[in-house]
């Protein structure tokens, strides 16, 4: 699988570049990670049926992930509001794209320790209650300087949340 972000080209459309070049390079599966897909609220306006047709016409067999923007970590209230306003639309888009995963990270890491992780747990619990009838999973992805960066961050979260629809994306590039 390759994602649209692997084909960033200034002045070009990542989605169209992926549909053109990924199959030619031997990829059969793909994911979307470009700005329209990560912009809070943006996924609700994306034409999933058209994208599904374009991907099938390009020879791609299916999707592996939809990337969403990071869950804010400044407060539980901000995290829950983000989930209700934005992340749920990314989840709905994943369902419409027949995609099993919504991948996202935590907000900016301002300090070491558990600061911000309580907000993440509140947001994740809200998300899990909203997607329980959807056939998707949320996948937390570590990023440098993100709230989800170290093993201790994931230990904190998974000691408080044990749910079959939440896991980790291990991106070796990070």
Q: How would you characterize this protein structure?
A:
With 174 residues, the protein is of the alpha/beta class. The chain has 6 helices and 6 strands, in the order βαβααβαβαβαβ. The chain has helices at 14-24, 35-38, 48-58, 76-96, 117-131, 151-160, and strands spanning 2-3, 29-32, 62-67, 101-104, 137-140, 166-168. The protein has a 6-stranded parallel beta sheet with strand order 1-2-3-4-5-6, covered by helices on one side. Helix 5 links the parallel strand 4 and strand 5 (137-140). The longest helix is centred in the middle third of the chain and has 21 residues, at 76-96. The model has no long low-confidence stretch (mean pLDDT 91).
What's the SSE pattern? EHEHHEHEHEHE
**How many DSSP E strands?**
6
Query: For this entry, what is the oligomeric state of its chains?
Result: single chain
Low-confidence stretches: none
Question: Which bin fits the share of residues in helices?
Answer: 40-55%
Class by alpha and beta content: alpha/beta
Biggest sheet overview: 6 strands, parallel
The mean pLDDT is 91
Range of strand content: 5-15%
Beginning-to-end CA distance, first to last residue? 17 Å
What is the CA-based Rg, rounded?
Answer: 16 Å
Q: Given the C-alpha coordinates, what overall shape results? A: globular
**Contiguous helical run count:** 6
Strand sequence of the main sheet, in spatial order?
1-2-3-4-5-6
